[in-house]
Amino acid sequence: MINVQPFSPEYAGQIYDFILHIQQKEFGLPVTREQQPDLADIPGVYQQGISNFWIAEHNGRLIGTISLMDLGEGKGALRKMFVHQDYRGREHGVALRLLEALKEWARTHEYSDIYLGTAEILHAAHRFYEKNGFVQVERNVIPDGPYIMPVDKKFYHYQL
Fold this sequence. Notes:
Strand content: 25-35%
Structural class: alpha+beta
Order of helices and strands: EHHEEEHEHEE
Radius of gyration: 14 Å
Helix content: 25-40%
Number of helices: 4
Strand order of the largest sheet: 1-2-3-4-5-7-6
Distance between the termini: 30 Å
């Protein structure tokens, strides 16, 4: 059974390898561990105030991640959405379950807007976001912050 839950420390050792494998090996993105220090301290970065980080797991194996970073004034940044290639697609529904967990958290914590940046090469992700109510916007619409990665070239907005 696939379970979506807030991050817990037992998954800390799997996070870097899981995300870096998808970024570097699957998509060839020039992203390094050093560019993502937030992943070394998920509780300190994503589980403070009204931010959070969720994982999807299957039989104790990490198969998906997503996070919501509080930007203040009811705005948040969707970050670190990754699903293991064997669990992508409607058949498993992992991405949708992760996104629904994030949206529910955002609603109950009075968010009004969610923003995200993503790499140009991630076409399936673009379709997924658009199908789920995100609208592509120009970079200048997105609040500045450390959540924007150098590889982010497409930007989206979701209004709650």
